[in-house]
Amino acid sequence: MTSHIAVMGIGQMGRPIALNLARKGGGAGQRITAVDADPARLAGLDAPGLVATTDRDAVAGAEVLFLCLPDGDVVEAVLFGADGLAARLAPDATVVDLSTIAHAKAVSIGRALEAGGRAFLDAPVSGAPAGAEAGTLTVMCGGAAETFRAVKPLLDRIGAQVLHMGPLGSGQLTKTINNVLYDINIAALAEVLPMAVAMGLDPQQLATVVTTGTSRSYAAQYFVPRILQGRFDEGYPMAKAYKDLVSAAALSSERGFPMPVTAAATATYQTALRQGHGDRDKGAMVLPFEALLGVTVRTRGP
């Protein structure tokens, strides 16, 4: 049994992931080390076998290191930068990157780790903080089959669907596809809902249809009720999530894949960013269209 597991990055996703790793197997000789530079994120982090610390040195000798970090540059710096962690892990350690980063970056990081004798699994997750808390995430893994098999019992503690998608980078490629489809859906809602209201339809009645009829989706069910209430601060900020569309554009350019619908959704996304909505969640893509048409998609009073 793996005796020392480390989790680097205790944010919205990393915190519940660290807790589930500990609650579903910590103690009894297994130590879970949770590391974050911000001590406020570690407050109240308590479970059997869990040690919360700001000291990066605490991951030394870890056999499995989980990363929950903002982007590929941060992942690279944490592993290989000044005071990098890669060389301080156990000699045959495995790094499992739960972050969402570019496909090419994941391949590059994986190869560098393998050259140093460590294994690597790119394993981005989907399911939002609620899924992380419930331990029901979808985990999309890329890497060697034997690495996946070795780490899967740990991934089963955090996910309901743990899938080996193929070789190095396949997890990130799958996550990009998932996120781009999600972004397209939200962009369509942002464009069509204000048009429907401008044509005289009641926003609440319309919301009932698009969240229960054939057009329903997770995006509609999550964002439409929040749009009706004018709440745009509960999801992942648009400025940070934009990296998914950048990754898709890079793949399209490198491989010559025509992606006209994705390009149109990207333009909607960029419009919202240019209008200063980057700190808001993706539902705020509706705001430029509301302004353009002079309407609001909000619940009407009596």
Automatic annotation (TrEMBL):
InterPro entries: 6-PGluconate_DH-like_C_sf, 6PGD_dom2, 6PGDH_NADP-bd, HIBADH-like_NADP-bd, HIBADH-related, NAD(P)-bd_dom_sf. Pfam families: NAD_binding_11 (PF14833), NAD_binding_2 (PF03446). Residues 5-166 form the 6-phosphogluconate dehydrogenase NADP-binding domain. Residues 169-286 form the 3-hydroxyisobutyrate dehydrogenase-like NAD-binding domain. Keywords: NAD, Oxidoreductase. This is 2-(Hydroxymethyl)glutarate dehydrogenase.
